[in-house]
Structure formats: structure tokens, C-alpha cells
Amino acid sequence: MATTFTPRVFSGIQPSGGLTLGNYLGAIKRFVDMQADDFETIYCMVDLHAITVWQDPADLQKNTRELCAGFIASGIDPEQSILINQSQVPEHTQLGWIFNTVARMGWLNRMTQFKDKAGKNRENVSVGLFAYPALMAADILLYHATHVPVGEDQKQHLELTRDIAAKFNHDYGVDFFPLTEPVIEGTATRVMSLRDGSKKMSKSDPSDMSRINMTDDADTIAQKIRKARTDPEALPSEAAGLADRAEARNLVNIYAALDGKTVDQVLAEVGGKQFSEFKPMLSELAVEKLSPISGEMARLMEHPDEIDKILARGSERAREIAAPILKRTYEIVGMVGASS
Ligand code: TYM
Questions:
Q1: pTM of this prediction?
Q2: Residue 66: which residues within 8 A CB-CB, separation 6 or more?
Q3: What is the average pLDDT across 179-202?
Q4: Would you say 230 and 275 are in contact if contact means Cβ atoms under 8 Å apart?
Q5: Pocket mutation for ligand 1, best pick of 8, 25, 46, 213 (most atoms within 8 Å of C-beta)
């Protein structure tokens, strides 16, 4: 009989720069929605993933704390959810090594994120960047997580996580790791650049005008939206009318996600309007939703020691779940000393 697993949510974000509106709508806002009494929720600042590309140590520290502040300011309750930074729970790396031996070179070679990040520079990127998805599988499976909310760009990594779980179970003849469900839902699973509707909004884009940062002030948000690329047509009244209009679709998707509405609901209100009218509405909504979060982030960042305490406490709670799962993994694999 198949094992049943406790419903448990895990997800992570890299502290490799500031948080963007893409991270907020595609991930954090949905992490908040998944906090519920019948789900255990674990949210992680994946600092070990971040260093697969160079990070200045002082920036990494600041970005990790700022990310934690962003989680809390957005509504993640550190009592209800477990908040951790990955390096403080050494079981992640321990299971990650086991999964390096399960994952196949061919699987990792197919990862589009690796191909994008390595570009033409394959010989010169870190080994960690290549092995990245095996550590990500370890993040998830270390807690036997059943659900992982992420944006669209992480879909392939989650399929790989399932492949790793299935191969481990098969090779060792066990039914130990769950086949985790990706949760990729809502209108903002892929927020696009404000300058180019074919590119994802990203913290690593050289142009700051391409993204809204969670720390941007009201004037900056309004300026970026005003300058966002659009087309000359008026907005349609139904979603089908956005099919070939990537930039227009992106702004409507952002509006819908911020307002908690469907695209059709938004278009029922704004259909027929020109962008000169819609953009100020979007700016006003974005500022209304984001400025309380950035204000609270700034307040929390004045007390870094409090943030560190939250992460230390989260790690203790996380290790209580992780340690027995790692121990059992070692036993299954045949490591001497694992059972003592
Ligand atoms: P990262 O740090 O690139 O992004 C964190 C989360 O934000 C989502 N996201 C977006 N969603 C919509 N539109 C966008 N433009 C956008 N940009 C980013 C991402 O899909 C992601 O959900 N490999 C992961 C981190 C990770 C992880 C994990 C995630 C490590 N271990 C375990 C889940 C479970 C990453 O690089 O995310």
C-alpha cells in the first residue's frame, strides 16, 4: 500500500539580490495563502543556492535578513510557519550529497535554468550551479514535503525532484520519498519584465526599470509603470483579446494578482480604457498593496538580531522534522552508524 504523507508545504527563495514583484506575486503572496491549520508550512532562504554564483559576503548577509523581513512583512507568521535559512540546517547539504549520487548527468544537463545561467561560459561556472537542482530536491524531500508553491520557471526543477524521489525509491526498493506536487497557480506565475514582455521579471536583469523591487518607493513604482512598454490599442473586455499582446497581458495580470481578481473580472472593469488611464490605476493599486510591506520590511531591518533569533528558532524546529528523515535515509543507503 502506498505510504500517505502528512500535508506539508516547502518553498524557497534565493537571497541573491532584492525581492521583486515577480517573487512577491509568484511566490511569497501564495506562501501566505497556504498558511493554514491543516498544512505545515516551511519557507526557506536558500543561501547555499545563492552562492552557486558569486555573492559578496556582506551583501549575502543583508539580503538573507531582508528576505526574511520580506516574508514576515508580507504576512508569513513565524509562529505558524517555520522560517529558516538553508545553511543553518546542515541536513539539507547531507541529503543533497546523497541526491548528487541519484541524479544523472543527463538529467541535469537538460535543465534550462542551468543553460540560461551558464550561457556560453559552461567551462567556467561553478560545479554547484550544475548540481543546484539536486540540492533543491533535498530541500523539499528532507521534510517529505507534499506541496511546493513556485512560479512557472521552477517547473522543470520540480519534475526533476520527482524523478530523484522515484529513482531513490526504486533503486533501494522503498516507498520513502513522496512524489511532491508543484503548485503553480494564479494569474502571476510568470510576471514579465516591464521593458520586454518576452522576458521574465528578474532581480538579475541589468535594467532596474524592468522590474518593481519590493523596496521601491511610491514615486519609483509610479515612474516604472508609467514607462512600462505597452502597445497603442485600448484594453480588451475579455482575456482572449490579450493573446498576442504580451506587455498588455503582463500589466493586466499584475493588476489582477495584486487585487486578488481574475483577468476577466479586471477586464470587465477596465475594458475599453487606454493605457494612459489604466497605468495610473495600476500604480495606485501597486503602491497601496506594496508600500505597507516595504514600510514593515524597513522597520524589521532595524532589528537584525530579532530576525536572527527567528531564523535560529526556525532551524531548531526544522531540524526536528529533518533529522529523523535524514537518519532513515542513511539507514536505507547502508551507512554504518546511522542506526545508533
Ligand atoms: P528564485 O529565488 O529565483 O525565485 C523565488 C520564487 O519566485 C518565483 N519567481 C517568479 N514568479 C513569477 N514571476 C517571476 N518573474 C518570478 N521570478 C521569480 C520563482 O518561481 C520562485 O518560486 N530554485 C529556486 C529556489 C529554491 C526552491 C527550493 C524553491 C531552492 N530550493 C525548494 C522551491 C523549493 C529559485 O531559484 O527561486
A1: 0.96
A2: 15, 18, 19, 215, 297, 301
A3: 95
A4: yes
A5: 46
